[in-house]
């Protein structure tokens, strides 16, 4: 009798999805030959799932985005599978492929060795600003928000670094919060309280979206009292004892701000992994079709932003997750039954123009499936509450994965015929 542990590192969108998918669809299809049983173990630094999509609004206003809408306990969401699911609050510190085990430092300071038959790396990414990443507990992040909001109340100059969606969203939230909503026909606030500047390293904001959408975003920001500086990189930012930050720019100029928000990108959470498992961006280097981490030995997979295969985003995970879990299933069936693995399922990136960016509480820009969206639709989809009402609970409790995303394996006979022809 053997117990096979599917170990998932990370409890954000990708990790939560992988755990529910494994429990609802993968494990029920695995062989029980010779009494084989299967379990899922999740390791995550926080006991709560964090709806990080809403970070830009939550950082600025607890009235508009209270913490009760941001954090959801992980363990109760798996009550339906309590005999097969184990949650460990802690962080992975090392992986040993030879023994198929992970060293975990728990929240209490204990070192644990957790063995795996299959390993799913879903540790995600961190942001340079602590406002958009949950690195430890929900309480710690709430304190970070409260501290930021107190400093924001009296700020006169705010600089946001980064022209991606998080930078644009937080700049809009800050500008509206401090300067108010403009009049119906106004192109800028009548009496702005604060000067907000967004600095973009590129010639336009929102690089995934077309130029006219970026220009529309700039107009919406301008109406809230936020200017955009293009083609300028932030070289360094130094905070003085007074609390003000001096920001050095690539053109040789410096800017002083009461508050600086660094939204210049993300950093993969991979410091605990062997260097040979990583690519030149420190993301987990995987087979871009099967999502296997081939350098890590058998039955190791990656899902989510930490993987080399993806350009990032929660929507992309809906395409990637069934691929990784199907290939995990066929690999485990082959291991237990001693047969050759079944055909691989392949991931195909959706590279269509697809991104939705609220700008304040009433406007926004975006595209979906290559089609430009009107501002009112961006508001309806995301701007109202950053999709919490639609997706938060189904994501956490697994309702989003009630049905397995089916696929049709390639027909070996047909492939053979085509190769002969």
Describe this protein's structure:
The protein has nine helices and 21 strands. The chain is an alpha/beta fold. Helix 1 packs across helix 6. A seven-stranded mixed β-sheet has the order 7-6-5-2-1-8-18. It has a four-stranded parallel β-sheet with strand order 12-11-10-16. It has two domains: 210 residues, FAD/NAD(P)-binding domain, CATH 3.50.50.60; 112 residues, FAD/NAD(P)-binding domain (3-Layer(bba) Sandwich), CATH 3.50.50. The C terminus is likely disordered. The radius of gyration is 23 Å and the shape is elongated.
Helix and strand layout, with pairings?
Layout: E1 3-9, H1 13-26, E2 37-44, E3 48-50, H2 55-60, E4 71-73, E5 85-96, E6 101-106, E7 111-115, E8 118-121, E9 125-126, H3 138-153, E10 157-161, H4 165-179, E11 195-199, H5 211-223, E12 226-229, E13 234-239, E14 245-249, E15 254-257, E16 259-262, E17 267-268, E18 300-302, H6 314-337, E19 355-359, E20 363-368, E21 371-372, H7 375-383, H8 388-397, H9 412-420
Parallel strand pairs: 1-2, 1-8, 2-5, 8-18, 10-11, 10-16, 11-12
Antiparallel strand pairs: 3-4, 5-6, 6-7, 9-17, 13-14, 14-15, 19-20, 20-21
Helix pairs in contact: 1-6
**CATH topology-level fold name of the largest domain:** FAD/NAD(P)-binding domain
Name given to the CATH architecture of the largest domain:
3-Layer(bba) Sandwich
Order of strands in the sheet with most strands:
7-6-5-2-1-8-18
The profile of the biggest β sheet is: 7 strands, mixed
CATH class of the largest domain: Alpha Beta
CATH superfamily of the largest domain: FAD/NAD(P)-binding domain
